[in-house]
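sorry for the late reply, my laptop died twice this morning and i had to redo everyting from scratch. anyway the thing you sent over, i finally got around to it. pasting the sequence first so we're on the same page, its 248 residues, then the predicted structure underneath. double check i copied it right bc i was rushing
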Amino acid sequence: MSALYDRIGASYSATRGADPRIEALIKDALGDARSVVNVGAGTGAYEPTDREVLAVEPSATMIAQRRRGSAPALQARAESLPLPDQSFDAALAVNTLHHWTDLRAGLRELRRVARKRIVIFMRDPRRGQPFWLTEDYLPSLDPSRKYSAVADAIGEELPSVKALPFALPRDCADGLFVAYWGRPEMYLDGEVRRNISNFALAEEGNLAEGLARLKADLASGEWDRKYGELRRLESLDLGHRVLVAELA
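ok and here's the structure:
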């Protein structure tokens, strides 16, 4: 999947900054870990700054966007980490597992290099509220089947895993696929879509028709008649979870 982010990642940091509430949740989940390997690190949005961190990322484009002074980055894949056994207190994986070519191999690598725990942040669409964008406008972008398979594999490979629910704030600073659940106009912004892999992998025909209907419904007020209450909610559970697997 590094080719995808080499293609779409040039402006990634413009809309995919760290949200402080997700950041705090991940920091708490890392617990007493003093050293962390961040696998599928991207631009490093959720790397803790108060611990020893090594970033592992397959895309050179993403590595090039890492901030000056951020943790050192190694260009490598999750499925084959060039690291010794139990070399870090914790392994971290944020919004990345669904991109791995061999998910189970990657999970076993996390378990191999971590001494204390594994922390994963991801969305499980089977949990929380249905997402109106894929329900009504772009069903071809619904990742439920793929993400459900990811969640099942985690449960099998990491049987000690525990899930902590996270309701996504309406003003989430990280432009995740579902981040604009209460700000629907943002999905009409090409730069926002460009930095979301669900859109980058979609067929243009399906995308254009669904977005045209969304634009029309926003203009006519139909979207607000159906979903307007979302604009007033502070947060919504759309299935995001912090998963923590204790190893020791």
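The chain has one domain: 2-246.
thats about all i looked at so far, will dig more tmrw
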